[in-house]
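Thread: "does anyone have the structure for this chain?"

Original post by V.I.:
We have the sequence but no experimental structure in hand. Need at least a predicted one for the grant figures.
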Amino acid sequence: MAKKKKQDPNNRVVAENRKARHNYEIGEVVEAGLQLTGTEVKSLRTGKANIAESYASEENGEIVLINSHIEEYVQGNRFNHNPRRPRKLLLHKREIHKMVNAVQRDGMTIVPLKMYFNDKGIAKLAVAVCRGKKAYDKRQDAKKRDWQRDKARLMRERG
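Reply from O.Q.:
Generated one for you, tokens below.
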């Protein structure tokens, strides 16, 4: 019998933006670090974060995560953080320039996909340059998904 692999407590998803794949065509995905305070990291370790309505934008040559919600840490007392404060994303300069150019030139948006802890226990954010989908694109994706499901069912029935 195979041994069940124990999940690493450091390497886990804290928050995920599920609507992003429905509302946007996902382009290039980049892993970014986050500039956080101590109470924010402790709150993330308890899994109390939401990035569903957040986005990233360029301010003074830096990319900043806006409208993400990291709940206050219960034992943080007077050292606690503001839950919706803008958080700086830690990226290389060429990645920042590439994203900013895509937003300015092509009318794309920088959307966070998921917030997680990597193997070393460091909080990371997967961000992507995305293009908004129209209603007919969403309908076409639903048709394609239904057809794939039906096709798999037919193949299973045939053998």
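V.I.: this helps a lot. The two ends are 28 Å apart (CA to CA).
O.Q.: and The chain has one domain: 13-132.
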